[in-house]
From TrEMBL, chain B:
Record-linked SMART domains: AAA
InterPro entries reported for this sequence: AAA+_ATPase (IPR003593), ABC_Ni/Peptide_Import (IPR050388), ABC_transporter-like_ATP-bd (IPR003439), ABC_transporter-like_CS (IPR017871), Oligopep_ABC_C (IPR013563), P-loop_NTPase (IPR027417)
Top-rank taxon, per record: Bacteria
Domain ABC transporter: 6-255
GO term, biological process aspect, one: peptide transport
UniProt organism field: Streptomyces pilosus
Compartments it resides in: Cell membrane
A GO CC annotation given for this chain: plasma membrane
Stated name of the protein: Dipeptide/oligopeptide/nickel ABC transporter ATP-binding protein
Keyword terms: ATP-binding, Cell membrane, Membrane, Nucleotide-binding, Transport
Single Gene Ontology MF annotation: ATP hydrolysis activity
Family as reported in the entry's similarity comment: Belongs to the ABC transporter superfamily.
Topology term for the membrane: Peripheral membrane protein
SUPFAM superfamilies membership: P-loop containing nucleoside triphosphate hydrolases
Length: 320, 332
């Protein structure tokens, strides 16, 4: 119970923190945030890492020196005897246990990782934001009945938050069966309550602001107030969370693949799967695990750095 | 027949496990078309709560509202939410204290004005845009076409308040409620905004309920003034009567406490002693008694009635009013 409340509280606090973002600076808030983002080293490093990752993901299959599935050097490795070739010219990352070029597989695998990360984040964002908007709108403008609706939705998200995210993802994946779509949905589902709670919290803060009162005093309809007044002002924490979520999504997707719930098709390499396969040969060829692991970590780090920098840029309390 | 007739309006905030807090305790006043009526009082006397109650903007939960507020034959306090939304902004509009926080920061001014025109006057597209520019022009914003595209933070404080006023008068409302419209502005801008409000009232015959703690604003603008203390009107009179013959000890003290430029050097200021927290419930007597120099035991025998001890139409809620013989006291 306590961990649930803590988690929920943390998200609410984040929403509130971001929303004390003075209305005084208005739309210049974004301009100001962009300026501070550009000045931030953390953001620059994050952006470079992400850019590199995206480029690799996009053009990986074309620059890969070999087909990711070609077992060209099958005779060079003897996994049973623990004989691997390691790094050598032509195979920069060495060969895996089936005689495939690890570097090529790594390059091609980046695309799957990016795809899973982005799609699952989008699933979480869209569904979560929809729930959050309903809940936030009901709570701010729906009167007593609306507050009841909000309470029900929020208890539901609390339940989802109370489940350990990986366990939830594994359960979803287990129910849906093994496939790439499963991984995306499973990882996305985990993000839903986070986005829902965040958006709802930030809408609640905006709902109490003067300009919403002024809009009510001018007789605007509720739907209009939600769409043009509350929502546009509530989005900044959600955008930050979306960036941070990409990092979590990538790690969780890799974890699911590692646990064998990912894409079963061996023709499509993926960093999580590569990691799982490398585990068996960790004693003899540890580098085979290091490459995908480093890929996952660096990419997640890039998104985290950018996300944190964005959060700082948008946080008025750190302004100065 | 007054356009708005408020009768014994009371607002009580209730919270579980806490004592009820009475914010407005039986306020009555009338506002006729083309008339400017002031509600004056210090912080916490219930001015703003009165305006929010009239607009129906108080939260539904934890608030008890009593009395009647008849606007154009309809009771504002009991009408359906749907009907209230329809007349808000079209017949009854409000101008808020802080123009910046009352404007949506992420939407250009033009959109904020046109959405009201769309809502209440059914205007669309180019017509709405033209009308919005016309409105900005009317409230004295130069180059309206350009300003329409700008965001609130790009306007100066005075222009923001003008834009808010433009939004409030967009549908030619019959009544405006202005809740301290000049408090957040520079003195020079204050004068311009008051001038603008006066102009609107004179030209359109709009009724204006002016809520303020600034006696200068009252002196410059209001026809009738109600002085509130602890949620009740203690004195209501025409502007001239109030300023020449403040009769309730509180009003008297308020006017006496204004520093004067022509006072001799070194003369001490004359505050009213105590604070608004030193009060007794109106039900038990005069809430001002603990701070009053003139109080007697009689002040503690139930709520004093409104009487007209000095002149007709000059109502005072006091058993020991400051009467004209003390005119010397005023100028002293």
């Amino acid at each position: 119970m306590t961990t649930v409340t803590k988690k929920a509280d943390k998200i609410d606090r984040l929403a509130e923190l971001m929303q004390t973002t003075e209305v005084t600076s208005g739309a210049s808030l974004w301009r100001e945030a962009m300026r501070r983002l550009r000045a931030s080293k953390m953001a620059a490093i994050g952006a470079v890492v992400i850019a590199a990752f995206v480029v690799i993901a996009l053009i990986g299959p074309w620059i890969a020196p070999y087909a990711p599935t070609a077992q060209t050097w099958r005779g060079d490795v003897f996994p049973n005897r623990g004989e691997f070739v390691g790094m050598r010219s032509g195979n920069w990352f060495g060969l895996d246990h089936l005689g495939r070029d690890v570097f090529s597989r790594w390059l091609v695998g980046a695309r799957q990782t990016l795809l899973v990360g982005v799609v699952s984040m989008l699933i979480g964002l869209v569904v979560g934001a929809l729930i959050g908007v309903c809940s936030g709108a009901a709570a701010t403008l729906g009167g007593r009945a609306g507050q009841r609706v909000d309470t029900v939705i929020m208890r539901f998200t609390d339940i989802m938050l109370s489940l350990p995210s990986l366990l939830l993802a594994v359960s979803v994946a287990a129910v849906l069966g093994q496939s790439l779509t499963t991984v995306m949905i499973a990882v996305g589902v985990v993000q839903i309550p986070v986005f829902a709670r965040l958006l709802r919290g930030s809408m609640l803060v905006q709902g109490g602001s003067d300009y919403v009162l002024a809009a009510k005093a001018l007789g605007l309809r509720k739907r209009r107030i939600v769409l043009t007044q509350i929502l546009p002002n509530s989005l900044s924490p959600v955008i930050v969370q979306a960036t941070l979520s990409l990092a979590t999504a990538i790690i969780e997707a890799a974890a699911l693949s590692y646990l064998g719930l990912g894409n079963p098709d061996p023709a499509i390499p993926e960093w999580g799967v590569m990691l799982a396969q490398a585990q068996r040969f960790f004693d003899n060829e540890p580098m085979m695990a290091v490459y995908p692991a480093v890929g996952i970590i660096i990419t997640a780090l890039g998104f985290t750095l950018l996300g944190e920098a964005m959060r700082e840029a948008l946080d008025p309390k750190l302004r100065g | 027949m007054a356009l708005l007739s408020v009768d014994e309006l009371s607002v009580t905030f209730t919270a579980k496990g806490r004592k009820d807090s009475i914010a407005v305790d039986g306020v009555s006043f009338d506002v006729a078309e083309g008339q400017v009526v002031g509600l004056v009082g210090e912080s916490g006397c219930g001015k703003s709560v009165t305006s929010l109650a009239l607009m129906g903007l108080l939260p539904a939960k934890g608030v008890r509202i009593g009395g009647r507020a008849v606007f154009d034959g309809q009771d504002l306090l009991t009408m359906s939410p749907q009907y209230r939304r329809d007349i808000r902004g079209s017949q009854l509009a409000m101008i808020f204290q802080d123009p910046l926080s009352s404007l949506n920061p992420v939407v250009p001014i033009g959109v904020q004005i046109t959405e009201i025109l769309e809502r209440h006057r059914g205007m669309k597209g180019e017509a709405a845009r033209k009308e919005a520019a016309h409105l900005l022009d009317r409230v004295g914003i130069p180059d309206p076409a350009r300003r329409l595209k700008e965001f609130p933070h790009q306007l100066s404080g005075g222009m923001r308040q003008r834009a808010l006023i433009a939004m409030a008068v967009a549908c030619a409302p019959r009544m405006l409620i202005a809740d301290e419209p000049t408090t957040a502005l520079d003195v020079t801008i204050q004068a311009q905004i008051l001038e603008l409000l006066k102009e609107l009232v004179d030209q359109e015959g709009t009724a204006l309920l002016m809520i303020t703690h600034d006696l200068g604003v009252v002196a410059g603008l209001c026809d009738e003034v109600n002085v509130l203390y602890a949620g009740r009107a203690v004195e209501s009179a025409g502007r001239r009567d109030l300023f020449t013959y403040p009769t309730h000890p509180y009003a008297h003290g308020l006017l006496g406490s204004i520093p004067r430029l022509d006072a001799p050097r070194g003369e001490p200021l004359r505050p009213i002693r105590g604070s608004i927290n030193d009060r007794i419930a109106w039900a038990d007597g005069c809430a001002f008694a603990p701070r009053c120099d003139r109080y007697t035991m009689e002040c503690l025998t139930g709520t004093p009635e409104l009487t007209e001890p000095r002149a007709a139409g000059h109502q005072v809620r006091c058993v020991n009013p400051v009467l004209p013989k003390s005119k010397a006291e005023v100028s002293a």
